[in-house]
Amino acid sequence: MREMGKFYHMHLDLCGFLRQHPKPTKKMNGLFHDDDGRPMTSEEAWHKLKCAKLEGKTGIPLRGCDNFNPKTGECLGHECTDDGGANG
Q: Which residue in 73, 45, 75 sits closest to 59, CA to CA?
């Protein structure tokens, strides 16, 4: 039997991002989407990231992740299937 591995989602470090972007910039327009999939304005995105940091979160996943720890800011891993695909 083939040994199974894990894969990890990438995440955005909130402290680093907000340090690089101390205020909203036009470059952020459309970079983030709200829960309905609508592109956010730079002001909306910056505010949401700032609020997440104030809530004690250190990171957010760049893609959907059902095994993400917002306090540590990391994906805890997902088992890969035998065919190389991902479960998670």
A: 73
